[in-house]
Amino acid sequence: MQDLIGSGADLAIRVGAQDDSLLTQKRLGDIGVHLVASPAYLARRGTPVHARELAGHDAIIAAPLLAWPLRDPTSGEEITLRPEARLRVDEMGLAVAAAEAGLGVLLSPTTVTRNAVARGALTELLPGWTPRRRPLFAVWSQQRYLPARVRALVDHLRAFVQSDPLLAASRE
Question: With 80 as the cut, is the pLDDT of residue 81 above it?
Fold first, then answer.
């Protein structure tokens, strides 16, 4: 994460809890994640039906999603997998391309993979085993005056996020 204050930026969009006391934050909504793999990969390796079966699969690990917290849809039990990476990247677009190429299973934000799933390039795995949604925030420095144009952008972003079912605030 870039130093928001040091960079002089007016605003940043961040996922997850923000612990920096020098930042003001406004929750925009929530972002979900899901497991995906290409149909070709699943044809070669089989489709897992339980989270413990992921141990036998190739994993594409995309930072910051290094651990895969999953919740059993029947029992509610939460488990956290730390899969061995076949490929580890720090750019989600590259991770999605690798998954589409059949290199393995990927835990990815639903917003990043929705188009690939819709066109059949990726298949969602273990529906119902989804991790908790992560909060999405607009953040800015408390040390700086927030210009009206930035306030207007924050309001616009909140309205946009609330209009997208993949981003709207969770009902959990």
Answer: yes
Average of per-residue pLDDT across 14-34: 82
Distances (CA, A) of 9 to 23, 29, 62, 68: 12, 22, 26, 31
DSSP 50: S
Instruction: Please report the pLDDT score of residue 9 as a whole number.
Output: 77
Nearest Cα neighbor of 105 from 30, 32, 33, 14 is 33
Instruction: Say which CATH class 33-125 falls into.
Output: alpha beta
DSSP secondary structure letter of residue 125: E
Phi, psi for 151 (deg, rounded to 5): -60, -40
Give residue limits of the domains in the chain: 10-31+134-163, 33-125
Q: Which of 115, 102, 111, 100 is nearest to 161 (CA)?
A: 111
Give φ, ψ of 150 to 5 degrees. Answer: -75, -40
Q: How far apart are CA 28 and CA 1, in angstroms?
A: 19
Q: Average pLDDT in the 62-91 region?
A: 90
- Which of 43-57, 88-102, 129-143, 149-163 comes out lowest in average pLDDT? 129-143
